[in-house]
Specification:
Umud Fragment, subunit A, four-stranded antiparallel β-sheet, elongated, hydrolase, eight-stranded antiparallel β-sheet, protease, alpha+beta, serine-type endopeptidase activity, disordered C terminus
C-alpha cells in the first residue's frame, strides 16, 4: 500500500480553499480599506478647507462686504440695538454717495480726531480681524448714521415750520424719524464744506451726530473719504430682515436742482 494513497472507503482530505474563494475574500476587504482612506483624507483636508474659507471671508470683508453689529439706539427705529447689517464697500466706487444713504464711517479723522487709539499687539489685531468677520467690532471710532447733506448743501434746522430743510427744501421725515422726536432740539444752519457730509441719526433725541461736533474738523461734518461703505440690508435677526432703501423725501428733484445753484462753486 502506498503511503500517499487513501484507504478504501475513506474520503480524501480537503485541501486549502481554491483560488476564486480567496479572491472573493480580498474583494470584500477592499471597500473597507477605501472607506478608511477616504475618512483619513477628509480629516487631513479639513484644516486646509477651514483656512481657505477664512482667507476668502477676510478678502470679502476687506474689499466687498462686511457685517456690522449696531451698538446703540441712535438709529432707532430703523436699526435696533444688536441688529446686524451688511455694508457694501464697492458701491461708492460705482456711484456717488446719496442723501438718505445709511453709511458706516471711521470717525478717527473727524469727531474723534486727536484722541489716542488703543495700541494692539499682533495677537489682539488677529482677534479683532477674526471678530470683524462676524460683525463684531471693538473700535469705538466706527459710526453708522444717515447722510442728510452732501458737499455744497445748505442744511438748516429748523425752518419756520419746525422741520429740517436742505437747500430750502423741507424733508418729510415721518418714514424714519423716531416716534415722538423732533427733527432737532438743537438749532443749526450750515453749508456743508467740499468733500464733507452732514450726517444724523434717526433717533435724534439721543444720537451723537454732526450736530454735536461743531468744534471738530469740518464743523461736525465728516470727510467723504472716511466712509467705509453703505449699509444696505439687515441680515439678523430674521424678524428684522429687510433692505435699507433711501426714503422718498430724499428723491425730491428740487434738492439737487437747488444744489446745482448754491453749490456750483464746489463743483456741483
Amino acid at each position: 500500500m502506498s503511503d500517499h494513497g487513501a484507504a478504501p472507503g475513506e474520503q480524501p482530505e480537503e485541501g486549502p480553499p481554491d483560488g476564486p474563494r480567496d479572491e472573493e475574500a480580498r474583494d470584500e476587504e477592499k471597500p473597507q480599506a477605501k472607506d478608511g482612506k477616504r475618512h483619513r483624507s477628509f480629516w487631513r483636508e479639513l484644516p486646509v478647507l477651514i483656512v481657505a474659507a477664512l482667507v476668502l471671508a477676510f478678502l470679502v470683508k476687506t474689499f466687498a462686504f462686511q457685517a456690522f453689529v449696531i451698538p446703540t439706539g441712535s438709529m432707532q427705529n430703523t436699526l435696533a440695538i444688536g441688529d446686524r447689517v451688511l455694508v457694501n464697500k464697492i458701491v461708492y466706487h460705482l456711484r456717488s454717495i446719496h442723501r438718505g444713504d445709511i453709511v458706516v464711517f471711521d470717525g478717527s479723522t473727524s469727531w474723534d480726531a486727536g484722541q489716542p487709539r488703543p495700541s494692539q499687539n499682533l495677537f489682539s489685531k488677529a482677534v479683532s480681524e477674526f471678530e470683524g468677520l462676524f460683525g463684531v467690532s471693538a473700535d469705538n471710532s466706527v459710526y453708522i448714521k444717515r447722510v442728510i447733506g452732501l458737499p455744497g448743501d445748505h442744511v438748516q434746522c429748523c425752518n419756520a415750520g419746525g422741520q429740517l430743510a436742505v437747500n430750502g427744501v423741507t424733508l418729510s421725515e415721518g418714514d424714519y424719524l423716531y416716534p415722538g422726536n423732533t427733527p432737532s432740539d438743537q438749532q443749526f444752519n450750515i453749508t456743508v464744506p467740499a468733500g464733507q457730509l452732514w450726517v444724523m441719526g434717526d433717533h435724534r433725541a439721543i444720537s451723537d451726530d454732526s450736530r454735536g461736533h461743531p468744534g471738530s474738523p469740518g464743523g461736525g461734518s465728516i470727510p467723504e473719504s472716511s466712509v467705509i461703505g453703505r449699509a444696505f440690508v439687515i441680515v439678523w435677526p430674521p424678524g428684522q430682515w429687510g433692505f435699507l432703501n433711501i426714503p422718498a423725501t430724499f428723491e425730491q428733484p428740487a434738492l439737487s436742482a437747488l444744489r446745482l445753484v448754491t453749490g456750483s462753486d464746489l463743483g456741483g
